[in-house]
Amino acid sequence: DVKVTQSSRYLVKRTGEKVFLECVQDMDHENMFWYRQDPGLGLRLIYFSYDVKMKEKGDIPEGYSVSREKKERFSLILESASTNQTSMYLCASSLFVNQARNTEAFFGQGTRLTVV
Amino acid sequence: ELKVEQNPLFLSMQEGKNYTIYCNYSTTSDRLYWYRQDPGKSLESLFVLLSNGAVKQEGRLMASLDTKARLSTLHITAAVHDLSATYFCAVDVHRGSQGNLIFGKGTKLSVKP
Hints:
The complex is a heterodimer. Chain A is mostly beta strands. Chain A has strands at about 5, 10-15, 20-25, 30-40, 40-50, 55, 65-70, 75-80, 85-95, 105, 110-115. Chain B is mainly beta. The termini of chain B are far apart. The model of chain B has no long low-confidence stretch (mean pLDDT about 90).
């Protein structure tokens, strides 16, 4: 079974802090994604990565950065946390689109971040 | 702008009834996925639809894909309380150098006795 593991289920951080959210997958997937989920807004893509050290902006990258130094690990960084970044953050991984017909994404358990 | 629209967004059903959730999308794609999310939990994969006319069934749920109409449906037969959850469809689109998923806003289903 595919396993995507996020480092924390719940986090509480102060405004202005630098926050790291970590995600690890064990299925050798090329693609990894970070989404945030807010009531009424659904899932919105923040960043994705299709290879080590490669990244592309999603729909709402402002205030975030990412790092992918190893294939299995994708980190989301909030450079200076703000209260409007309080949300549920979901990491996902999937196979490379040119190598597989099925590009189904597998999700981690989510990190509920509260910025106070 | 890429859009994936689900309707209804909220659905309250009685046990034993049938209903259909619709997922319309605005771009060409032949890969569509359905997910389920329970309150406070992450997304769990339900169905993978990879071609026009694809139909998949699991228990009381059946999903289908019409790529020409850019429409997928999730049909619920004889609903039971355990099906109460939020259901998302997601469409695979090419973005930059890779495909990725664009999600609908979800349909929150509540099945009442």
